[in-house]
Every structure is written in structure tokens, then in C-alpha cells.
Fold:
Amino acid sequence: MCAQKASGSPDKTAARVAELKETLDRYNYRYHALDDPEVPDAEYDKLLRELRGLETQHPELLTADSLTQRVGAAPVAAFGAVKHRLAMLSLDNAFSDEDVRDFDRRIRERLAIEGPIRYSAEPKLDGLAINARYEHGVFVQGATRGDGETGEDITQNLKTIKALPLKLRTGKPPPVLEVRGEVFMPLAGFERFNEQAIARGEKSFVNPRNAAAGSLRQLDPRMTAARPLDLFIYALGIVEGAELPAEHSATLQALRQWGFKICQQSRVVESADGCLDYYREMGALRSSLPYQIDGVVYKVDDLELQRQLGFVSRAPRWAVAHKFPAEEALTTVRGIEFQVGRTGALTPVARLEPVFVGGVTVSNATLHNMDELTRKDVRVGDTVVIRRAGDVIPEVARVLPERRVAGASPVVLPSVCPVCGSPVVREAEQAVARCTGGRICAAQRKEEIKHFASRRALDIQGLGDKLIEQLVDKEWVRTPADLFTLESERLSTLDRMGEKSGQKLQAAIAAAKHTTLSRFLYALGIRDVGEATAHLLAQHFRAIEPLRLADEDEMQRVPDVGPVVAKNIVAYFRDPENAGIVDRLLADGIDWPAPAPPEAAAELAGKTFVLTGTLQTMTREAAEEAVLKLGGKVSGSVSKKTHYVVAGTEAGSKLKKAQDLGVTVLDEPAFLKLLKK
Ligand code: D41
Structure:
């Protein structure tokens, strides 16, 4: 194909090369700057191959700004030094709300301005700062920040980053334009890269920032080209001969027009309050962003005010970085233990040298299950990266294999339960290993009772985990039914209990007898019967006796109950010990009002809801209950399958995700209307 085109007249070839360059430039701009690809990647690659072919046959047509020039330059022995024509300033840090209010106050005082200041707020990418120089619209030089005065010449390496335009998209480029931004490695690329590096037996990177820095400082640009790097532009350097807007925010938009990639999360906010709102919003969004951020940056938006403010000791007075607590930290594994859950599932847990991460001290981290443990290959003594993002349970993100102590051996699944000594089984193709002890196992008994008493089950006020552990250890309580036989005098003798609290607890246990059928079913802890299934069972059977007697076929008539779940439910009630417990519970006086008639119950059947933010007229639990009552389901995360997202005040990342996915968003009045309240 290339040969055919190349055999045309020289004029025609030159025209085709020009056309290809223009088309590829446009595709590139749409893909990187606008994040809105015009054609599939394969089409882009095809044209790029054609261009490369023509340039090889007609070297006279090859120019430095051609997209084919992103890769291929020869390695260098060392980077040359680049003196920045305009120093690259650093950023002062703010760590608290107070710091941000002080920053805003200092600015208003210095400028003698009473009213609110407008700030451009943007995420602070965790990468490497660079300067890119364009002369007459063509990229000519790239440099690292270095010490701010002098950096390293990484022109060839920067060229390999597709988000960097090699040519400005304007008919009238200024003689000189320097832009500044952050090179980073998106999380997906980072994880892929690390997996490959480990598979090849090479060193992995601790975090995306180190990965970006290591990749940019490769002496061989072909190495850099192979790394998934990206770039956001956030400032200007020297500019000669260009008319530019009077605000930072408008400058960013102008740069976007010229083909640069700008972070889409930046926004103009007003005063310290606006900054702090933005900080919280980004904090909520942080774990769902495709790249790592370590804070946000506020910059006075008015460039004239920036000029008046100037800088002190290499940092502008008009900007500040407001840092998030670190989400990742390094520590070592002291031991790996297996916790036994309610259904006997063994969960490996890493006991850690305590480490401060995500705003709290973490000394345990879940390893989820054997497959995860094997995949991550965590061993006792290992140095590991602990991640605690948002309110998520801390986990071992990865191991640093190069820091492994000699002789550390892989963790093996115990053959017997560490609590009761019963055999541990792991069914074929199942990630979960289980203790087969059932109620013989004290761990399973404790968890069964914790579940029974929990907020969404019988909601026994004041019966916390520590008390339950004592009750089981003393063998006063073996099954949930035993709770109702406890006398206040006995309860008073438990650790941290007295006469009053003993009476109160006994009263709370008695009060919990009055519940709903669906809560009761959920409280029993039948395998695979969560809240939603419990609701559907209650609606279908409307009483406990028909449910206890139903066979698997009858069970499967309940919406969402398939053969496996049906089998588990029937097996639960057929088990003599379970049957005895249910009999005793009912004899002890557990009762509930008759459920609402099924006709009224199906209005939201099959509809999935996600609740986010704070509702003004009802609690989160009341809202969930109302949805379940009408046959709907409540989920914790937004996906394409979500029907409605109910957004209260201060809704965060879930609302954003709903909007991104085009899921219907209900405000509180609309939600109440749907519930007919
Ligand atoms: O995202 C960033 N890492 C970021 C860094 C950003 N969004 N804005 C920045 N703005 C500046 C000034 C205000 C000095 C132009 C920066 C940096 N500087 C910066 N990055 C590394 C040192 C300084």
C-alpha cells in the first residue's frame, strides 16, 4: 500500500504526507486533549504506518514535528543540562483547613481586598514536573524541573508521550511558548507495567510517581516510549509574542485549544470555603480517579493579582498545595494469620508493623482469600505497600520482592482450623477455604451471634463484639437462642459491665424480640441470604411456617432465588440443630407484624438503587428500608445496572459516576415522590 502511494509524483507524495500529518494531528488532539477519540486506534495506527513508509522513502519530507518522530531516537550517554529561562517555582504546602484559611487571609491582606478571591483549583498530580518549549509552534526542547533553575534535557523522552503535541494547533503560533506540567503514569498502566516487570524477574516500582520518574530518566528513549506515560499541563513558562487571557483558568482553556491535555477536574472556586469544598470533593473522588493525586492546588485566578503578589524564596505567594493524608505506606509483615468467619470462611490477615496511612494507624490488613494471597505472594518478613483509600478496609497492595529476606517461605493454607482444629476444606475452583466445624467452632459461633445482633439484623442495642466474645468464651451463649435466657445479674458480671448496664442490656435483648420477618430471616445467617433475599422471602411466604416447610421448587418461585440459594435455604431449615434454634427463638417470643400485602410490595421490583449524600427527611436506614419494602434493591456502588441514584446533600463520587454513566439521579423530593411519601 505504501509503495503504491509513494510511486506517485513527488508533489502528490508531499501532499499526501501533509494530509496524513494533519489527520494524525487531529486524531491525536481528539484522543489526548479532548479525550474524545474520533476513530478506533487501529485506524490511527494504519495512517501512522503509511506516513512512516512515505517518510522512509522520501527522507526529504521528514520534519521534526512529525508524529513518527515520537520514538526511535538513539540513546544518549547522559542528559544535557537545560537552564530554565524562567525559574520553575516550587509550591508551599498546606496540611489543614486552618493553613488554607491563613493562605487566603494573607492574600487578601497583601492585596488589601475585602471581597472573596477567585482561585483556580486543580488536582495535584503525583508525578514529575517538566517544561516543554515550542518555537514557532514546534516542540523543540523538553526539560525536567531539576532544582528549579537547571533541569535535564529530556527532549527525546518527552516526545514519546502522546499527550504532548509536537506542533501547536494554531495558524499563528507565537515565536516562543513554554508550557509546564506534570508527567505521570496512570494507575492501570502502572499496575500492568509492574506485573510485567515482576513476570520478567525485573524490579517493580513502589508507586506510580517513581515509575514516571524512572521512565522519564531513561537514557534510551525507546524505553520511555514503552512506558504508559501521560501528561497534564498546568502553567506557562516564557512566552514571547502571544496575546494570552487575563486569568489562569482561561489560559488553561486556551492551551487546550492549542492541543495540550488539561486536567478536566480543575475548576474556579471562590474564597477559602470554596477551596475547602473542592478539597473534600476531590478527596471523595480520589480513589475513583484513574491517576494518583496527592492533594489539590489553589492558584489565584487573576494573573494581574498573581503578578502583584509575586513570590518568596522560590515559591509563589499566590499558590498553595493542599495535601491529602498519604494513602500508601511501606511497612513489614510480622505474621500472617487466618481469621474464621461466620460461615467458616478462612480469611488470611497480615499482622503488620504499625504504620500511619490514610489518616489512621494500621496494624492489620486483609489478604482477602488464598487466591489473593498466592497472587500477591505475601510472606512473613516481607516489606509491603499498605493502601487505605477513603474508608476502605486497609489492604496489602503489593510486595517489594527485592526486599524479601532470604529464606522466607510461601504461606500455606492450614489443613485444620486454627480455632477449633476441625478439617479445612477448599472446594475445587473456589477461592474460599472453610473450617468444617460449624457450631463446634467458637469463631463461627461468635460470628453467628455478632451477625444475629447486628444493626441490620435484630439490632440489639449495646451488645457489642467484645461482650459477645465473652459470652461465647464463658459458654453462657452457644447459639442465638441462648441470648434470650440471659439474666441481668449474670450480664452485670461481664468485663466493663455493672448492675445498671446489665439491666439495660437484658432489656435491649428483650426489646429486640419485636422485629420484622425479613430482619429475622436475615439474622439467621443462612448462607447466601442477604437483606434483599430475606425481604423477597418474607414477601413471598409472608409467614415463617410455610417458608420452613417449602421445598427447593417452591423456594425457586421467589424472585432472585436460584437453585443454589434454594438448596442452602432448605438445607438450613432441615438441619435438626437449626430447626431447634428457630423453634426456641419463636417460643421465646420473637414476633413481627404481618407483612404488607404483596400487591403493594412490587412497585420497585427489580429496581436497583444507590443512596449517596445526606437526606434531610429520613435516615439512610429508613430510606433503604423503604426501597426494600417496595421490592427494590439497594447497592453500595454505581454501575451501568443501577436504575436510580438518590443524591442527598454533599453527594460525592457516586453522583459523579452516575452522571458519567447516564444513570437517573433522583433528588430527595423526586425520591419521596417515587416512594409516594
Ligand atoms: O499537579 C501538580 N503536581 C501541579 C504542580 C499543579 N497542578 N500545579 C502546579 N503549579 C505550580 C506553579 C504554581 C508553581 C506554577 C504544580 C507546580 N507548580 C509544581 N510541581 C512541582 C513543583 C512545582
Observations:
- Residues 1-6 have pLDDT under 50 and may be disordered.
- The first strand starts at residue 81 and ends at 83.
- The first helix runs from residue 2 to 6.
- Residues 376 and 398 are 6 Å apart (CA to CA).
